[in-house]
Amino acid sequence: MGGFYGAAATRMPPLLGPDRELLIVLLATEPVGFLDLDTDRETSDGIDLTYFVVPGHRRRGVGLAALRALVAGRPDRRFVAAVRPDNVASLALARAAGFTQTGSDEWGDLVLVHRGLPSSASGGPSHL
């Protein structure tokens, strides 16, 4: 992985703790992306999720497969991601993976998308 996120992925392990998971997305043996789960920030809205696919592997189904596998492997969890409103590709990926746009962050800079159990199942308001 190159660029900022490539460097970040190689430096992240020391930052990971019991409340963080970094899942590396592999194509054969090549790292082509990652999913970063922050369970420390889990609220009734869900586990905070960040996803990234290396530019050379975008629009090939890699991100969609990774998100679908994540959700399928954790059917009892709810996920939330914050996406820049001008990041049309990321919003389309989230929609294709079954995420629903539910509003914006507290500053109005990012679009929030959710996927998983309705919050009513975990005690909060339903966004799905």
TrEMBL record:
**One Pfam match:** Acetyltransf_1
GO terms assigned for molecular function: acyltransferase activity, transferring groups other than amino-acyl groups
Give a yes or no for keyword Protein biosynthesis in this entry. no
Q: Which UniProt keywords apply?
A: Transferase
Q: Which residues form the N-acetyltransferase domain?
A: 1-118
Q: Which residues form a coiled coil?
A: none
Q: In terms of domain of life, where is this protein from?
A: Bacteria
CDD domains xref list: NAT_SF
Q: What is this protein called?
A: GCN5-related N-acetyltransferase
State the species of origin. Nostocoides japonicum T1-X7
Q: What is the lineage of its organism?
A: Bacteria, Bacillati, Actinomycetota, Actinomycetes, Micrococcales
